[in-house]
Amino acid sequence: GAVVSQHPSRVICKSGTSVKIECRSLDFQATTMFWYRQFPKQSLMLMATSNEGSKATYEQGVEKDKFLINHASLTLSTLTVTSAHPEDSSFYICSARTGQETQYFGPGTRLLVL
Amino acid sequence: QQPVQSPQAVILREGEDAVINCSSSKALYSVHWYRQKHGEAPVFLMILLKGGEQKGHEKISASFNEKKQQSSLYLTASQLSYSGTYFCGTELRRDDKIIFGKGTRLHILP
Fold first, then answer.
1. Which of B2, B44, B94 has its CB closest to that of A104?
2. CATH code assigned at B92
């Protein structure tokens, strides 16, 4: 299957700082990438859909000024959590869509805001 | 709208079978099945497109009933490695976003 990487895998930061998470499709070009957030023992909640070269589409209730998404190339999308607070602590997972109609997930980034 | 999965949790002994259901109130284009182990990202299992097809590997298969907007995942002769949380994701149109159900936790006992 297609390979998607995320970096960092784990990050701890102080409240008020910004954190950038990278998502890369390693062996394919992804015109669309998705960002999810998952709290413990809960489902994957879609935050936004990111298309290369255009603005991301955010789901209802997701603050676009707080979660900045950039999809600069066909293999890279970034999520920046600005002015992070403890309630932003979560497991953030990206996925990328191939031309074969499914999505492949990255390994996830565990964010802990102190 | 989020698809509804049932049951919420299943405990089986190794070698037993399991069925996990996923239903939607809206007409679907596709259903995607993933398995997630604790602390890891979801792993793609299979996709079913409208047309009522059935797909599968040797012991893991799935069906999609387009009329009922329901999909079922069948795990036959379960192995310890099948433990994890199974999510179905549904798409309303081609290349649309995938919305995931709440998951079904499967625990296989030796």
1. B44
2. 2.60.40.10
Q: What is the pLDDT of residue A1?
A: 64
Contacts of A97 in chain B (CB under 8 A): 95
pLDDT tens digits for A22-35? Answer: 999 998 888 899 99
User: For residue A86, is it left (φ>0), alpha (ψ between -120 and 50) or beta?
Assistant: alpha
Q: Do B44 and A101 touch (CB under 8 A)?
A: no
Task: Give the total number of structural domains in chain B.
Answer: 1
Residue type, B32: H
Give φ, ψ of A63 to 5 degrees. -80, 115
Neighbours of A4 (CB within 10 A): 26
pLDDT of residue A100: 63
- Hey, what amino acid is at B3? P
Which residue range(s) make up the domain with B25?
4-109
Report the distance separating Cα A66 and Cα A83, nearest Å: 7
Q: Per the CB < 8 Å rule, is A107 touching B40?
A: yes
Query: Which pLDDT score, from 0 to 100, does residue A51 have?
Result: 86
Please indicate whether, in this complex, the C-beta atoms of A32 and B95 are within 8 angstroms of each other: yes
List, for chain B, all residue ranges whose pLDDT scores fall below the cut of 70. 51-55
Q: Is residue A54 very low, low, confident or very high in pLDDT (cuts 50, 70, 90)?
A: confident
Burial class of residue B105 in the structure, from the number of CB atoms within 10 Å of its CB (0-12 exposed, 13-18 middle, 19+ buried): middle
